[in-house]
Specification:
The protein is mainly α. It contains 5 helices and no strands. It comes from Trifolium medium.
């Protein structure tokens, strides 16, 4: 009776550890792209703290690095808090290109979310799912017919 529970807990710990490794690898990769390190410093997963709080902290760090990378790709001086900023026509063109790329990603995510939400609604109808159970997913299904400009809440498409 205890053995299956223990095995399940070990499996969840292994899965969580893999999530930590994946996020830390992404952080390492983006950091290397942005800061061009002279040596690669291996990261270590702290098995004593595999909490969701710590994982969310790593996700926030990753998100910050992704923003920094996007800004530095537009123009290296924009991500630098010191020194002068060089904003010329080329920089503005790169910003416009970055905006177009991000808009494309947003549209792809919206389409995927709308397709999944439509499927979910169809399944709910087939299974006669109670409204109370559907309410949990209200934040997803409310965007099913939304236009690009109507989806403005952070992380609504991730």
């Amino acid at each position: 009776m205890i053995v299956p529970e223990l095995e399940e807990m070990q499996k969840r710990k292994h899965d969580r550890r893999n999530q930590f490794i994946e996020v830390q690898e992404q952080i390492q990769s983006i950091s290397n792209e942005i800061h061009c390190p002279r040596e690669i410093i291996p990261f270590i997963v702290d098995d004593t703290d595999l909490s969701l709080r710590k994982l969310e902290e790593l996700h926030r760090q990753l998100h910050t690095l992704q923003k920094e990378k996007t800004v530095s790709e537009v123009h290296p001086s924009l991500g630098n808090s010191e020194g002068s900023k060089s904003v010329n026509n080329d920089t503005i063109s790169q910003l416009a290109l970055a905006i177009q790329e991000l808009r494309g990603v947003k549209l792809q995510r919206m389409q995927k979310l709308q397709d999944l939400a439509t499927s979910m609604l169809e399944l709910w109808n087939l299974m006669d799912t109670p409204i109370e159970e559907q309410q949990v997913f209200q934040n997803v299904t409310c965007n099913i017919a939304a236009s690009e400009d109507e989806v403005t809440e952070p992380n609504a498409l991730s």
